Amino acid sequence: KSSLLKGRITEMAYILDRSWAYKKETASAVSNEKLDQLYNLARRSGAIGGKVSGAGGGGFMMFMTTPENRLGLVEALNNSGTRASPVKFTGLGCETWQAPG
Q1: In whole angstroms, what is the distance from residue 1 CA to residue 67 CA?
Q2: Cβ atoms of residues 20 and 48 within 8 Å
Q3: Fewest CB within 10 angstroms: 8, 12, 49, 63, which?
Q4: Each residue's pLDDT tens digit in the chain (101 positions)?
């Protein structure tokens, strides 16, 4: 939280990356081959770090990157068969939306 509030976005992204690595060490069911492949693709495509959230049949992955790597990251994720969508930080957390249709 402190890194984010101080505008240290890169630091925050590294924290997310480390926390994902630690979380995967807690139990084998935390991740699977497909999630690991997608996370590794994102890292190779410019993501500094990310977070996997959700459970069961739903959830999402959030990645943080620099502005100059954003489009390449989105393109790589979309080309992999996933759907990347923008998010923004607000006073209440992270928001995303999509148009109906």
Answers
A1: 21
A2: no
A3: 8
A4: 788 889 888 899 999 999 889 988 898 888 889 889 999 999 999 999 998 887 666 678 889 998 899 999 999 999 999 888 877 767 766 666 565 55
The model's pTM is 0.79
99: three-class secondary structure by DSSP: coil
Residue 82 to residues 69, 78, 89, Cα–Cα distance (Å): 18, 5, 22
Residue 46 one-letter amino acid:
G
| Torsion over CA: 10, 14, 19, 21 (sign) | positive
Q: Look up residue 12 and give its two tokens.
A: 């925050």
Dihedral of alpha carbons 7, 45, 95, 26, sign: negative
CB atoms within 10 A of CB 74: 18
